[in-house]
Design goal:
The chain is of the alpha/beta class and about 300 residues long. The protein has two domains: about 190 residues, NAD(P)-binding Rossmann-like Domain (Rossmann fold, 3-Layer(aba) Sandwich), CATH 3.40.50.720; about 100 residues, UDP-galactose 4-epimerase, domain 1 (Alpha-Beta Complex), CATH 3.90.25.10. It contains eleven helices and 14 strands. α6 runs parallel beside α8. It is globular. The protein binds 2-amino-3-ketobutyric acid. 2-amino-3-ketobutyric acid binds next to loops.
Length: about 300
């Protein structure tokens, strides 16, 4: 019997759906409470509709289910946040404050909060970006994630809050659609490759970005959450490396399975966001502290993505 009772906030998003599936297998369905602002068709219970900005409703759910750990996934991503900067700041920051404060008050024991490669900016070294480096993000999403990292570290140092975080690269999976990110092209391209054998990319051919296949990201998240507290030396957020590629390279990988696939380029406002982010990530701190090791490379991911999406 698990002694942990987990709440996932934002469970119907790209990460939440796969994380919930994995946590349920590990901790038992009854011990993983999912929540989001909307209920899905065929929603697996236990589920609660909740707005992370409503602190009273949130703490009501935490008390009702005697929650010990919270995974806070509700956020606006980079592209959507640029279109609605005030709401993005409100959601990304106040959601985090509500959860951090519940941990400070001792109502919950452990928090997972995702950060992003968006915490880096145009003045950051872009190749093999170190854990500790210049961070001057110029997107509202990146600014909110960087501020969030500072708050996480502050709450850990001042109040002993056990908060853990990863700077996710672009995440690629076949089970759910991404929403509102700059790295989303790397998911859409697989769908279009199967559907129409061609894809028009909103980033230019040579825009390299750090990416990761979703099962690696989910494994990293759970491994970090299960690591002994003394091993988790970084309480802002860990760099996490997986695969780095540009649109031309992912297209070439797809062509190994679909030779007639073609790609064209029509960069939009997301190009400037991508240009401000790292091209590859140094994740040696995560490897050293809690044994991180990615399993998938680009062709390995392409194979499983195409196999699963074509089913
Ligand atoms: C986005 O593109 O906004 C996200 C991210 C890198 O955090 N996928």
């Amino acid at each position: 019997m698990s002694t942990e009772r987990i709440l996932i906030i934002g469970s119907n998003g790209q990460i939440g759906l796969e994380l919930a599936e994995n946590l349920r297998l590990k901790y038992g369905s009854e011990n993983v409470v999912c929540s989001d602002v909307r209920k899905m068709e065929n929603q697996i219970e236990p589920f609660e509709i909740v707005d992370v900005l409503d602190k009273d409703a949130l703490s009501g759910i935490v008390k009702k289910y005697e929650i010990t750990q919270v995974y806070l996934l509700a956020a606006l991503l980079s592209a959507t946040a640029e279109k609605n900067p005030k709401f993005a700041w409100d959601l990304n920051m106040n959601g985090l404050f509500h959860v951090l404060d519940m941990a400070k008050e001792g109502i919950i024991k452990k928090i997972y909060w995702p950060s992003s490669i968006a915490v880096f900016g145009p003045t950051t070294p872009r190749l093999n970006t170190p854990q500790y480096t210049v961070m001057e993000p110029n997107t509202i999403y990146g600014i909110s994630k960087q501020a969030g990292e500072r708050y996480c570290e502050y709450y850990h140092q001042k109040y002993g809050v056990d908060v853990r975080s990863i700077r996710y690269p672009g995440l690629i999976g076949w089970k759910s659609a991404p929403g509102g990110g700059t790295t989303d092209y790397a998911v859409h391209i697989y769908h279009e490759a199967l559907k129409s054998k061609s894809y028009e990319c909103f980033l230019s051919a040579n825009t390299a970005l750090p990416m990761m296949y979703m099962p690696d990201a989910i494994r990293a998240t759970i491994e970090l959450m299960e690591a002994p507290a003394e091993n988790v030396k970084i309480r802002s957020s860990y760099n996490l490396g997986g695969i780095s590629f540009n649109p031309e390279e992912i297209a070439a990988s797809i062509r190994k399975y679909i030779p007639e696939f073609t790609i064209s380029y029509n960069p939009d406002f997301r190009q400037a966001i991508a240009d401000s982010w790292p091209q590859s990530i140094d994740d040696s701190e995560a490897r050293k502290d809690w044994g991180w090791n990615p399993a998938y490379d680009l062709d390995g991911m392409t194979k499983v993505m195409l196999e699963n999406l074509s089913k």
